[in-house]
Amino acid sequence: MSVLTGLGRPSRLRTGLGFAGGALLLFAVAPAVLDDFRLNLLAKYLCLAMVAVGIGLAWGRGGLLTLGQGVFFGLGGYAMAMHLKLADAGPGQMPDFMQLYGQLDELPWWWKPFENPAFALAATVLLPMAVAFVLGWVVFRRRVRGAYFAILSQALAAAMVIFLVGQQGTTGGTNGLTDIQGFFGYDLADPVNKETVYFVVAACLLVLLAIVRQLMQSRYGELLVAVRDAEERVRFLGYDPAKVKLTAYVVAAGMAGLAGALFVPAVGIISPALIGVVPSIEFVIGVAVGGRATLLGPIAGAVAVAWAKTALSERFPGTWTYLQGALFVVVVAFLPGGLATIFAWLRGRRATPRVSTVVDGPAARPVEEGVPS
Amino acid sequence: MLRSRGRLLAYSAILVAAVALSACGSKTGENKSGAGVTADTAGDTVKVGLLNSLSGTMAISEVTVRDSIKLAIEEINASGGVLGKKLDPISEDGASDWPTFAEKASKLIKEDRVAAVFGCWTSASRKAVKPVFEANKALLFYPVQYEGLEQSPYIFYTGATTNQQIIPGLDYLKSQGKKTIYLVGSDYVFPRTANKEIKAYAAANGMTVLGEDYAPLGSTEFGTIVNKVKAAKADAVFNTLNGDSNVAFFKEYKSAGLTAAAMPVVSVSIAEEEVKSIGTQYLAGQLTAWNYYQTTPGDANAKFVKAYKAKYGADKPTSDPMEAAYVSVYLWKAMVEKAGSFDVEKVKAASDGITFDAPEGKVTVDGATQHIYKTARIGKIGDDGLITEVWNSGSPVKPDPYLKGYPWAAGLS
Q1: Mean pLDDT of B4-20
Q2: Of A140, A173, A264, B174, which one has the fewest beta carbons inside 10 Å?
Q3: Are the beta carbons of A23 and B54 separated by less than 8 Å?
């Protein structure tokens, strides 16, 4: 949506209609059209879209190439999964995998608080935010930028995977946490409850969207774009770019954490394979395909990429990876601004020529500020 | 009129409230009403699912399993199908990614309504799909040797469990007078669990474990580990490395001057297919523990090897997991025919005592554990890349996934 790239405020009416339309689509159309299995898949896609919304803010608006969002996704996911495993096991009991691999006599102290649902729920969002805050504080203060920041965030994802795999007895190792029966007392094998999980995911996505829209429209949003495009100038104007970037990074981390937490009941598993270097890059690819600087682009991209993966692999189980690769190449080569540019292009053909503002504007221009000067 | 921000919050609040109100499904612990998805067996054909990694790091191994499942299905169709119905294989790609396995398993069961699913390789993928099969009351046939300590009511395990592969391997080393061993493995569930069992065995059988090292899956850096192995001067090495890592490990092993004669390596994840890709010059003389080799004698195996090579090429070797996958389709067929129905519960009830004259020899389904009786075989890798048997258990070994028959394993599960 080019109008949301900060070039002009859309009318309240249009925003309201947009949200109402989105809600209608997610809450009425999708459940009516899709069967249980497909609706459940959509819930998974929407979880990935929640991560994408955060990346859209941090990378699209803030220029922070976060190649390690899997870490925050994983922190949220493991916090939620561990609570559900402990709830499944019952009070005072150990989860099945700890008995099997850990041969521990009692729950390790760092998992103890996760028996409490309120603590676990809060941790799914606050824990990733806290980690992002500490990391961001150190990194942005020292003016680490661009490729260095990307490499650092990626290293964090790799380190987290190695840690989880090594701690098989307490984290489930490569298996991750799986075989989750209930979600706060509701049986996840029941399709009705699975549908409810979908509604929770869809509602959370809309809430996150509203939050990001507010941030983008606010003075802070302007400042974030300014930091992305000319950090030094913003500094001379008396602002602290580190704080501006830190905020976007922490918010994006919280969103990834919430996404990970909801991914667990939706999909039923969290494992190192979902949070390492490759999935972290895949999050970013989804955002790039959709259009990173727009509000809806990251969501469209994340859902489109995940949907294409499912659809192609079902149709062409042997060759789908090539087709998926070809799709990325086509999008990057012909739609550098992402799928969002298609909408702008279509609108441009119908009405005012707005295309140029999107294709050439700050939104779609590669962010080069990371090159150390 | 509300301001834009206020209105958004109001919308959000309504949405969340609507969601909270719509939660009315069954609680955990209530009697599960969902009886699972029934397979679609009304037509002339019956769909069966093939769930293997066709892309990613595991593809090299799992594609061969998919191929041998397809071979079995073709043979069964050529001889009239199952209960008069032809089998229609639906292949899905698990992509070497555990959550994808769960997604595809769900798709095969709910969308395609298959009568049974054959596949999975790594323990992690099996653990990921296990709840899917259990929640939907659908059947999985799992064809690969694994670490034991599992018994799902909806999985049939046609590969070896620990007491049919690893323990015979240790027994063999013991009978050869090996007193000290060194454990090398990939860092994931199978090696870590297997090594736990090996250490318990060693403690009870007067063997000493001199060291235990893990390398990340896919790691090719073995200088340090091999130096430690060399310095330890163990009598033998027990190797649970998986995939590419074996290439680097055995190259390093050879260049460090270690030989099969002085310090043999017993591997449990290297079959004919892997020997081909690692290179026989590094492996000749080393030991493996399996239940089947391409060289296993018998008419059933001669027929299987011939059919496989005719379909996929003369240079393609057959291996233990491929054979176990091939056997699993025939076992399912026999169960269905005995039950006279494709119904999962009836098939399960009919499973006990089903036998099949498999390439590895006669196998029998143990209904209680849903594992099968298999003959353990220790083999030596030859210069031609084939593995020849040096010892076997004589008769099929009763599966004991929880090692209940071994006093030393009491603390393991």
Answers
A1: 54
A2: B174
A3: no
